[in-house]
Design brief:
heterodimer; A: alpha/beta; Rossmann fold; 2 domains; 6-stranded parallel β-sheet; two-stranded antiparallel sheet; 15 helices; 47% helix; globular; B: alpha/beta; 5-stranded mixed β-sheet; 12 helices; binds thiamine diphosphate
Chain lengths: 353, 322
């Protein structure tokens, strides 16, 4: 059974742009390109720190930078947009301004990595699959009730769209016509399970139809297409038009997490096919074609990005070790007596460190 | 002062809390137009509009999850789980998010959320409508658990729960919803969470109860000669250890009665604490009167299961003769 959903793509793998693409200035393109690269370099740094045992299990964003950087650019002029990520949105999070060292702290096992949630309107990384979408729904619905001009963007993976919480959140934003945009980064796998085994639906986007709002597919490795789709969806949301569900078609070039090995469930050939569609290469080719980028730009940009990432890593490495009392300090506004007693006991046991 | 049953007292608490604080909203299945299947939210939509009291889709994870999002964005949602037997789809939201977000963000985000739910048995209900699983929630750090047993307490505790900056699970014993009427002040008042109430003083034996077991304990106490001290715990987490220990130090004997099954029930926590903290004041083992460790029987056999006054009388006499 087929339900038609629109698919948008403007930039081909050789960097040629089709008609109808949004107008993006050279500066716009450079910003998006910068964020994709910064994200990729930061990602590589985190992976290498993980190998050295300096960071915990981490979910790589390699290959998925296009959709995330374009999304951040499409909402850059609006402060009142909440990002509600799953765990594979490092690029969008960084591009939204969330400090890289904070992200490193999160993945390095420090709760303080999430203590600037309000300031950046970026919810903490969310591990229980799809449950974050209900938070995005609540933020968006509350904005409507409070008469705020704003929106919430919730992220989910292709596997996550099989969860019950996905359906509940979709139904909520639809029913309340909430200013929400749900973005599925369809990276073709949920750990080892391929998209085809996840659902009999021919597209993920079409699931929105059942909840009474629009679902669209977009080439997730094409920043022009992603920029336009997100910009339109956000404008619609903020003007009372209700939610949109965006299926961004992309590919996870890396392992699921640092604890995974993709060779067990997919072939080299398949991965190589997708490498040809790399979002960074595509935009670079285009920028070179239109004459706003050259090797020298590239070199400077890479140096700059590496420097910023190294600085962040240094800040991360300097993070003080948590004190034993900190595991008690943020449970409640006021610690109940029985936990206070346990705190006193543990602080004493650990020598008040 | 007005005579009110527990439903009316809770309803009154809502009117007061929503009047005082425009960020307080309430929703859930049938909460808006219908006023909830037990009518606790009756009249709120008419008074405060359909953006402050409304019907949600039938989706428990969605209700609690969206309430967390609303709390992040500055509202104080009081959501209803229609029956405590249907909280489970929302369990993930309660355990993994509501209770954790303050800690995960080092206090940057707090979740001032109340999850209300009719709870407990003794009303010849359908399957899945009679469980007492409060112990599940006590085991979740970051969450508070409140169970009132009277109209007066229900009102003061609900307002306190709404004002609390952290998530509170508020379990309302269905059996007591309309069981008694009591003088309840019309005005605002709160009862601090975490404070037990000495319902009746006595020197011979301490009886600890909460929710639907409080009237059962009162009944039993009226049948024995011994002078029993009855304590209603009211808040299960954090619980009022001091009041209980002070009482047990005086009486030297203690019985905990709860509707929940025995193993891993909250009575075990109290008993363990008493032996840790005042073993030399005890002159008999701490006793428990609880349901057996079986699935709540369907209502034709529920009376075997639910602790009653006779069971407690028997236990009191056993302890007195120990
Ligand atoms: C509720 C829940 N079930 C299972 C897991 C374990 N798990 C972590 S990631 C993952 C796959 C997610 O796939 P998808 O939603 O496609 O996102 P992706 O990882 O590809 O970005 C699973 C099963 C989890 N985190 N949460």
């Amino acid at each position: 059974m087929n339900i038609d959903v629109p698919y948008t793509s403007f930039l081909d793998i050789d960097g040629n742009l089709k008609e109808g693409a949004p107008q993006l200035s050279h500066d716009d393109l450079k910003t998006i390109y910068w964020h994709m690269n910064l994200g990729r370099i930061c990602n590589a740094k985190i992976l290498s720190m993980q190998k050295q045992g300096r960071i915990g299990t981490y979910a790589s964003t390699l290959g998925q930078e296009g959709c995330q950087a374009a999304l951040a650019h499409a909402i850059k002029d609006n402060d009142n947009i909440w990002l509600v990520p799953s765990f594979r949105e490092s690029v969008a999070t960084i591009a939204r301004g969330y400090p890289m060292e904070q992200l490193m702290r999160y993945w390095g096992g420090f709760e303080i990595g999430s203590n600037q949630t309000r300031e950046f309107k970026v919810m903490p990384v969310n591990i229980p699959i799809a449950s974050q979408l209900n938070h995005a729904a609540g933020i968006a619905i509350s904005m409507k009730f409070k008469g705020e001009k704003g929106a919430a963007i919730g992220f989910v993976g292709d596997g996550g769209t099989s969860e019950g919480e996905f359906a509940e959140a979709m139904n909520f934003v639809g029913e309340f016509k909430a200013p929400a945009v749900f973005v599925c980064q369809n990276n073709q796998y949920a750990i080892s399970v391929p998209r085809k085994k996840q659902t009999a639906a021919s597209t993920i986007a079409q699931k929105a139809t059942a909840f009474g709002f629009e679902g669209v597919q977009v080439d997730g490795n094409d920043v022009f297409a992603c920029y336009k789709i997100i910009k339109d969806a956000i404008e619609k949301a903020m003007n009372g038009g209700g939610p949109t569900f965006v299926e961004a078609i992309t590919y996870r070039l890396d392992n699921h997490t640092t604890a995974d090995d993709w060779h067990k469930y997919r072939t080299e050939e398949e991965v190589n096919e997708w490498k040809k569609k790399d979002p960074i290469e595509r935009l670079k080719k285009h920028m070179m074609q239109i004459g706003c980028w050259d090797d020298q730009h590239e070199q400077h940009m890479l140096e700059d990005a590496k420097k910023k990432v190294e600085e962040a890593a240094k800040a991360y490495e300097g993070t003080p070790k948590p004190k034993v009392e900190e595991i008690f300090d943020h449970l409640y506004a006021k610690l109940p007596y029985h936990i206070q007693e346990q705190k006193d006991h543990f602080v004493k046991f650990w020598g008040g460190q | 002062m007005t005579e009110r049953n527990m439903v009316q007292a809770l309803n009154n608490a809502f009117f007061i809390a929503m009047e005082r604080d425009p960020t307080v909203i309430t929703y859930g299945e049938d909460v808006g137009v219908d006023g909830g299947v037990f009518r606790v939210t009756d009249g709120l939509q008419a008074k405060f509009g359909d953006q402050r009291s409304f019907d949600s889709p039938l989706a428990e994870a969605g209700i609690v999850g969206s309430a967390i999002g609303m709390a992040v964005n500055g509202l104080k949602p009081v959501v209803e789980m229609q029956f405590s037997g249907f909280i489970y789809p929302a369990f993930q939201q309660i355990v993994s998010h509501a209770a954790r977000l303050r800690n995960r963000t080092r206090g940057d985000i707090t979740i001032p959320l109340v999850i209300r739910s009719p709870y407990g048995g003794g009303i010849n209900a359908l399957e899945h409508h009679s469980e007492s699983l409060e112990a599940l929630y006590v085991h979740i750090p970051g969450l508070k658990v409140v169970i009132p047993s009277s109209p007066y307490d229900a009102k003061g505790l609900l307002i306190a729960a709404i004002e609390d900056p952290d998530p509170v699970l508020f379990l309302e014993p269905k059996r007591l919803y309309r069981a008694v009427k009591q003088e309840v002040p019309d005005d605002y008042y709160t009862i601090p969470l975490g404070q037990a109430k000495v319902m009746k003083e006595g020197k011979d034996i301490t009886i600890i109860a909460w929710g639907g077991m409080v009237p059962v304990a009162e009944d039993a106490i009226s049948q024995v000669k011994a002078e029993c001290e009855l304590i209603d715990l009211r808040t299960i987490d954090p619980w009022d250890k001091k009041t209980i220990i002070d009482s047990v130090k005086k009486t030297g004997k203690c019985i905990i009665i709860h509707e929940a099954t025995k193993t891993g029930g909250f009575g075990a926590e109290i008993a363990a604490t008493l032996q840790e903290e005042c073993i030399f004041n005890l002159d008999a083992p701490v006793a428990r009167v609880t349901a057996p460790d079986v699935i709540v029987p369907y209502f034709k056999a529920e009376h075997y299961y639910r602790p009653n006054a006779d069971m407690l009388v028997k236990k009191i006499n056993e302890l007195l003769n120990f």
